[in-house]
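Troubleshooting entry. Yesterday's outputs looked truncated, so today I'm pasting the complete records for two proteins to confirm everything comes through intact. If either block looks cut off, that's the bug. Protein one:
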Amino acid sequence: MSKQRAPGWWYPWIFVAFFAVIITVNGIMMFFAFDSWTGLETKDHYLKGLAYDRNVEASRAQKALGWTVKLDVDVLETVDLQRKVAYKASFLDHDQKPVSALKAHVFFVRPTSEGLDVDETADQVSDGQISGELVLSVPGQWDARIHVESMGRQYQHVERVVIK
């Protein structure tokens, strides 16, 4: 007497195979997501969202100042991947006169990687001019952010620079 399988015995295995494929594909996608994550995130994103209206108003106030900024960044020294750079920024008011009494802070932010950012207080070398030197850990694209205060007026300049 031979035992035959019932017709459709393999139907439950279709469901098992379906879920095995789904789990495998999701596992592969999770691997690539974690493997390619740069670690960048917005800190305090909720609080920054709440401050949106204040930031828009500050942007309008900054435009009303009519200041113009010229930023120069030059590579002084190269050691392996590190670059010692000198920066100089000139600030002119709406009458094209140098802005006096500058207090400045400079940030060089790597837009594609975390943990490489550099920030320091900038020195005012003359009316309307700040300068300084700093060491960047890798060449490539950087966002130079300069926060300036002069007699209670706030100004922020952001410029993308390429360090070779």
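Protein two, checking that the full record survives here as well:
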Amino acid sequence: MRFDGRKDTRVKMEHLQPVNLMGSDGTWRRSGVLLDVSQTGAKLEVEGTLDVLQAKEFFLVLSSTGLAYRRCELVWIDGTMAGVHFINGNSKKKSASAMAAAAQSR
């Protein structure tokens, strides 16, 4: 299953999956909805102003406790939509289905 000609297989969310975006320094936070996700990135709909995303690097928080999150960098913005690329440090990559399951289990 591929969406919008992207390289990696994307999992489209059938139900609204609330997420939060948080600055890597913790100084800002935005609510949003996870629209689709792959092993390397995600498409989000973000509430509020997107000017803080110009920081380029931030956290995508998938759980209300903050235990499920990914470090991201901004790829594109179109209105209230944003595309992000996951930054993989030394950690193992999570599969799109595992991320979708984590988002749905909240």
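Both blocks look complete. Sanity check on protein two: Residues 59 and 65 are 14 Å apart (CA to CA).
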